[in-house]
Amino acid sequence: MKKKKIKSVDYKIVKGTYLLGTGREQNSYEFKIFKGHPDFEKIQVDSVCWSFYQTVDVITTIPALIRVEKIYQNQEAIKINNRLEYKNGYPLVLIAKVLEDFDYRLLEYIYATNIRYESEVSRFNMIEEKQNVTIPPSELEEKYKLYREVNQLHKNGMGIKKIAAYKSISKNTVKKYLRMTNAEFLKTFQKNSVKQYRDHILNYLYKDHKISAKEIYEQLEKDKNIDLNFGKRTFEKYVRYLREKYKIKKK
Question: Is the confidence at residue 218, as pLDDT, over 90?
Fold first, then answer.
């Protein structure tokens, strides 16, 4: 029986994911590299390449990095190329350059910068205006953001020592956050329940600088229709702490 000859083509189809400042994208896309390209023989699985950014609906001219997951040649490449180009109505995005000595540590800094920027955006969005006074994020919000950032940095490959230095916290704190689940982290704050009402207390203080801790306590129970599960002395101490921290003096 005559063996069927596999048809040879002058291109390879590359399947890869984008490496972005927000992390590695979950979606995979197909790219094309033609014979005659200087990197045609060089490209392989796990290569990092320059191409152009695309989504399911949009092709752009924005340069972007991809990491190669699979390479298809000959008959497989023909099938994939014909199917996708017919389906999409446009040719596959091309590989521009294979990077031989790509340093993944560079991505760590990009990821870290993006996480810090997201933190700033979140802080910006959480600002509340009360009589032209900005209320800072609560202690829980700040620590929870730190907890998420630490876990994301570690997930992206940054080591414990680097995370501690980058976030200006101890290595033990990093290790503690990495050991804790999301539920376990939040549970640690439920014990200090007075802090859950921090924003409400600040609202009362900003509206009326003369209001007493006792009045806030009673008003809080009335407005929220709840029974506060901590003593008035604890509450008064916390109100005094908030006054000192945010410089809200009685007038």
Answer: no
